[in-house]
Structures are given as structure tokens and as C-alpha cells.
Design a protein that fits this description.
The complex is a heterodimer of chains A (about 240) and B (about 240). Chain A has about 240 residues and is an alpha+beta fold. A 5-stranded mixed sheet of chain A has the order 2-1-5-3-4, with helices on one face. In chain A, strands 6-9 form a two-stranded antiparallel ribbon. The longest helix of chain A has 17 residues. Chain A is globular, with a radius of gyration of 18 Å. Chain B has about 240 residues and is of the alpha+beta class. Chain B has 12 helices and 5 strands. In chain B, strands 2-1-5-3-4 form a 5-stranded mixed sheet. Chain B starts with a helix and ends with a helix. The chains are: A alpha+beta (about 240), B alpha+beta (about 240). The interface between A and B is medium-sized, with 26 and 26 residues.
């Protein structure tokens, strides 16, 4: 027996350290498992379900399930990619996503995954929810139409910035949304700042820096240059400075 | 497992011993089960039976001789049609948390399933994508069929969403949310199909309806201001 534990990911042996999840093991090995709510710097919560894989025959979230020695994991298969595509379509119709007019276009994980998984249409009837934007803050715009309920802003603001600016609340498709932790419910009445970790964490186009739009030309944006599936080694940080680089 | 049923049984086992308890019920389901019988029956209430009791026995006891359907273990459980009433309560056949809902012959099983679909859309906490969005998509699909705008396509969609929710939902609510639709679609297909506009495809929205506000604004109602069926029927009248 070797000292190192390993699992089989789509038939390839992948070594992992004790305590690593399937997602962490795959990322360390340079293998892409589609995901939206997972971020390597934060504790996984497993809500988007894009990383659903089959481990020893059972559907599980790769971001939350600890890897086990000898585990057989199916990841890049027609069945799983079909399910992921359907969940992307669900996320698209649940919100109001108009990529051509969105500043995050080209740097958006939702859009990049839709391309990666060959999602050609939203498929389902659109919900067209009424989600007002919050433009109260001098430096930051919040466009909730694009929110995919990943909660990364909640985690980053709470655990890194120690500010607790955001909270996820409400139930079901109509109720669930991000709340701003101020009496008015407006971002301007919090101590949120552009330098906060949470300001650059949004995988889609909800949290946007004001006074600079479409800074990177089409063709040079992050996912224009290389598809998301090829960027495994680059942590999915999405700070404004990251985009400019 | 600190519910009242378990605590009562633990107390009885302490008094009478494990052998006594194991002697009740069936080989694989020892003991007794409390059933909460509700719906179209003469005597609803809480009944206690040894495991292994048949659905037909419970129906006879609660006064539901003409039952059409029994829903075992709540909306996410199993929908039983009349020919399955010989099946037995127990882990080897019909596992249940205790709910036993009786539906009489006058109930429309499509409307029952639609009600369950809305129940799950309302109950979904919204944490995970498939359940949050999927339960609402299914409820809307059922409304579309109820409104006479459904087609075979919508039934395929319900099956597709059922498979996804079963596989990818975070918890049991989402995983089982489409069970009553899956069961009623398999056992009461005509209740769905007689509502379908076509057995092929019908769009999710009404093009002609969408033009209503434009017609109102322009004061027009001639055949050229209508789409599809409506255009033909308006045109036929003039």
C-alpha cells in the first residue's frame, strides 16, 4: 500500500491529502469540475449543485464530500453535464440575465459555464422576477437581477471583511434573496467599501464597481481568452484589479 | 429519534421486553405503527396497527370502502391506486412516516397532483438550485396543463425535472418533490391527457393573448390583428 490516498476521477487516478473534498482533489490535479458557489478560499456550502458528480454510484456535491481512498468518481459524463446544463438554464430563467448589456459579460462564471456546457437556450419559460437595483452606494452598484444565490458575498463579508454587510434570507423562488444589513436596507448605509473582499467575490454581475464599465474589450476578457474549463489552476477570484490585469 | 411515538414504544419495551416487541409485526418490520388516517373516510383519526397490515384493512376500518387512491407517507410518499390496496405497511413494502390520506372516487387525481406540486414549490427553502427553481417550474407546468394549454411536451418536461431533482437536490424535500406527479402520471395518465391541447407541443404563452394590449391601444380587432387559432376563428366569423 502506498502512503498516499487516491480516487479515480473519470478513470484517472487522483491523489489527495486527508481531509480534502473531491473538488479540492480535482482542482489540485488540474481537473475541472463545474461550480458556481464554491470558492477555494472559503468553506463550501454546496447550494448551486453544478458540481454534482457520481461518487461510487451516488449523486453527491463534489465541493462538500470528503474524498475517500479508492472512491470512483464520474464527472465529465453526458448524464452529469446534461443535469448541469439544466440547472444553468434554471438559474438563467430564475433571474433576469441579459448578457449583451451586462458589464460582467466575458468575466462571468455563469455565462462561461453556459458556454462550456453548450447551453444553447434558456429552454424553460422565464420567470422575469421584479428585483430592484441598489445604486445608493457611491462606488458600487448592486444589480440583483443577476443574483444566483451563491452566498459568496455573505461569506466574504462576514469571514474576511468582518462587516456582515450581506445576508441570505427568505424562502423559495420568490422569497430568497440577498438582504443588506442596514436599517434602510440600502448599501450606502453600511460600511461596505470597494476594497472589501466581498466587493470582488461575485461570480456573476451583481456587485459592480461604479465609474468603470466594459473596461476590457471583447476578445480580451477573462473567458474570451480561455474557456473556464481550462482555468482550473487560476483561483476564481474576481476582484476589480483581477479583471483589469 | 425523540418523537412521542418512539418514546412510548421505548417505555413499553422497557416494561415488556424486546422479545415481546419483536413478536409484533413482520420479520423485517417489528412492532406497531401509528397511522394518521385522513381524507375521504367515515372515521378519520390516529390508528395503531401491527406492521404488515394491508391498506385494504385500514380502509375498511376507517370506513372508506369506495376509496380511489391512498397517499402513503404524505405528498412525497407513494400514490396507491385501487389495485394496489393489498399491499402492506412495513419497511419491506410500504415504508411510512404515518400519513395515510384517502381520496374518494370523486377526486380528480390531476388536481390532487397539481395541489401537491404547489405545496412543494411553497415549501422549498430555496437553498439549492434544482429544488428552488425546479419545484416552481413543475407547478407552472401543471398550471399550464390545467389551463388547457398543455401538451405531451409538458409531461416529458415534468419527467425530466423529476429525474434532476431526484439526483441533484440537497435534501429529501427536493429529491421527492415530484414523486406524486411521477406516480399519478404513471397510474392516472388519462387525468392528464384529457387536459392536453395536443399530444405534441403547445407553446408556454399565448401569442394572441400577448397582442391584446396592442389591439386595445390601436382599437383594432380584425383578423389581421390576431394570431393562430384566434385569427382563423375571428376570420371565419367575419
Amino acid at each position: 500500500m502506498s502512503d498516499e490516498s487516491s480516487l479515480l476521477l473519470d478513470g484517472l487516478p487522483v491523489a489527495f491529502a486527508d481531509g480534502q473534498t473531491i473538488m479540492e482533489a480535482a482542482m489540485a490535479a488540474g481537473i475541472f469540475i463545474p461550480h458556481l458557489c464554491h470558492h477555494p478560499d472559503f468553506k463550501p456550502q454546496g447550494s448551486c449543485k453544478l458540481c454534482t458528480v457520481k461518487a461510487n454510484g451516488r449523486y453527491v456535491s463534489a465541493c462538500t464530500l470528503p474524498a475517500k481512498d479508492g472512491m470512483e468518481v464520474e464527472n465529465n459524463s453526458p448524464d452529469l453535464n446534461d443535469k448541469r446544463r439544466t440547472m444553468l438554464q434554471m438559474l438563467f430563467v430564475e433571474g433576469n440575465h441579459f448578457c449583451p448589456s451586462c458589464e460582467k459579460s466575458g468575466n462571468c462564471m455563469l455565462q462561461a459555464l453556459a458556454y462550456e456546457l453548450e447551453m444553447l437556450s434558456p429552454h424553460f419559460p422565464e420567470f422575469y422576477p421584479d428585483r430592484p437595483v441598489d445604486a445608493s452606494h457611491p462606488d458600487i452598484l448592486l444589480d440583483f437581477n443577476r443574483c444566483i444565490m451563491c452566498s459568496l458575498c455573505v461569506t466574504a463579508s462576514r469571514d474576511v471583511d468582518k462587516k456582515n454587510v450581506f445576508a441570505m434570507g427568505g424562502r423559495g423562488i420568490l422569497g430568497r434573496r440577498i438582504h443588506i444589513n442596514s436599517e434602510s436596507g440600502k448599501l450606502a448605509d453600511t460600511d461596505f467599501a470597494l476594497t472589501d473582499r466581498a466587493a470582488g467575490i461575485c461570480p456573476v454581475g451583481v456587485i459592480l464597481e461604479k465609474h468603470r464599465g466594459f473596461a476590457v474589450p471583447i476578445g480580451s476578457r477573462r473567458y474570451d481568452v480561455e474557456p473556464i474549463g481550462m482555468q482550473v489552476e487560476r483561483p476564481a477570484t474576481r476582484a476589480a484589479s483581477d479583471e483589469q490585469a | 429519534m425523540n418523537n412521542v411515538e418512539t418514546l412510548c414504544k421505548a417505555a413499553l419495551i422497557a416494561v415488556r421486553g424486546g422479545a415481546w416487541f419483536a413478536g409484533l409485526g413482520t420479520a423485517r418490520s417489528a412492532g406497531s405503527k401509528l397511522l394518521s388516517v385522513s381524507g375521504d373516510c367515515a372515521r378519520p383519526g390516529i390508528y395503531e396497527y401491527d406492521f404488515g397490515v394491508s391498506v385494504a384493512t385500514v380502509l375498511a376500518d376507517c370506513g372508506a370502502d369506495d376509496a380511489q387512491v391512498v397517499q402513503i407517507s404524505g405528498p412525497s410518499g407513494i400514490t396507491l391506486a385501487r389495485e394496489e390496496f393489498a399491499r402492506r405497511i412495513g419497511f419491506e413494502d410500504l415504508p411510512t412516516a404515518g400519513a395515510f390520506m384517502v381520496f374518494g372516487p370523486h377526486r380528480d387525481m390531476f388536481e390532487v397532483a397539481r395541489n401537491f406540486a404547489h405545496f412543494f414549490a411553497h415549501e422549498s427553502c430555496g437553498f439549492c438550485t434544482p429544488c428552488r427553481v425546479g419545484t416552481s417550474l413543475v407547478a407552472n407546468c401543471m398550471d399550464k396543463i390545467a389551463n388547457g394549454r398543455g401538451s405531451q411536451y409538458d409531461i416529458s418536461e415534468i419527467f425530466k425535472i423529476h429525474r434532476l431533482l431526484h439526483a441533484a437536490s440537497h435534501c429529501g424535500l427536493g429529491q421527492t418533490a415530484c414523486n406524486p406527479l411521477f406516480d399519478t402520471l404513471n397510474k392516472f395518465r388519462p387525468a392528464y391527457e384529457r387536459r392536453l391541447r395536443s399530444l405534441d407541443f403547445a407553446p408556454a404563452f399565448d401569442l394572441d393573448q400577448a397582442l391584446a394590449s396592442a389591439r386595445q391601444m390601436t382599437g383594432r380587432d380584425d383578423p389581421a390583428a390576431h394570431f393562430g387559432f384566434a385569427a382563423r376563428s375571428v376570420g371565419g366569423e367575419s
